[in-house]
Specification:
Helix content: 10-25%
Shape: elongated
Structural class: mainly beta
Radius of gyration: 23 Å
């Protein structure tokens, strides 16, 4: 009888170890002091992106995030717990931090998070800011890859994967995400310029300084020539703190180095 009981217990234990477990983590708000450039101390700090569903196109693939054999589920307020993601991308080479977007019916409007492990402790950071912008749907573009190492999330966060830094982008109005489309950045990639209805709203990701440059209707009404005209008639000029902002040329005959506008 004892042998039978031991065999039964052993089989239950072995069966329980056979599949992946799940663990739920509560998301917290992003903090400027957050450092995602974390180096692993062991295999327990390494995250794994696992493809759960293969779509007809790459964009239709779906993913889960695992730490060892445990699948991570995100809990965030009134939102339903999420463990399946439409976007999953490492933001450091150490594979200790991954950017994800929840797979749900909202598409580009679905929430973003960073999952990272530091010293064996897993945390989930929310990259979602409430917005009441009249044209939020138009200007909420989800993840935009400006370059291979520079990412833009919903006009609210700028991510540099070279050093795993996440910079919050200062809004024109605190309760509205920037109502414009990314247009270009300075040569040092610290100042981002967004094309709004009648201006270039510029914000420096490192200093938080901003500058709104009104544009004449003669420029904004001709989108097909707008980039060329900006390149010809405007220049990145450092302010008194050394922060570059686009400004109208005082001398229209000045020769502009095309590298100043390289995107």
């Amino acid at each position: 009888m004892k042998i039978t009981l031991y065999a039964l217990v052993l089989s239950v234990v072995l069966f329980g170890c056979g599949g992946n477990s799940e663990k739920t983590y509560k998301a917290r708000a992003f903090a400027v002091s957050d450092d995602f450039n974390v180096f692993p101390k062991g295999s327990k700090d390494i995250l794994t992106i696992v493809k759960t569903d293969s779509g007809k196109t790459t964009a239709a693939d779906r993913f889960a995030i695992n730490t060892r054999d445990t699948t991570i589920t995100i809990e965030d307020g009134a939102n339903a717990p999420a463990k399946k993601f439409s976007v999953a991308s490492f933001i450091n080479t150490q594979k200790t931090a991954v950017l994800v977007q929840v797979d749900d019916k909202d598409g580009k409007m679905a929430p973003f998070y960073i999952i990272y492990v530091n010293g064996g402790k897993t945390e989930v950071v929310s990259l979602n800011k409430a917005s009441k912008g009249a044209e939020d749907k138009k200007y909420t573009n989800g993840l935009e890859e400006l370059t291979r190492s520079n990412l833009l999330v919903n006009n609210d966060f700028f991510i540099t994967t070279i050093n795993s830094r996440v910079y919050p982008i200062k809004r024109q109005k605190e309760d509205e995400r920037i109502q414009g489309k990314f247009f270009m950045y300075s040569s040092d990639k610290t100042t981002l310029a967004f094309l709004t209805a009648n201006a270039l709203y510029q914000v420096n990701t490192k200093t938080g300084e901003t500058f709104n440059l009104p544009l004449p209707a003669s420029l904004t009404s001709q989108p097909e020539t707008l980039v060329g005209n900006i390149q010809s008639d405007y220049t990145w000029v450092p302010n008194e703190h050394g922060t570059p902002f686009l400004k109208k040329n005082a001398d229209d005959n000045r020769i502009v180095d095309i590298k100043e506008f390289k995107h």
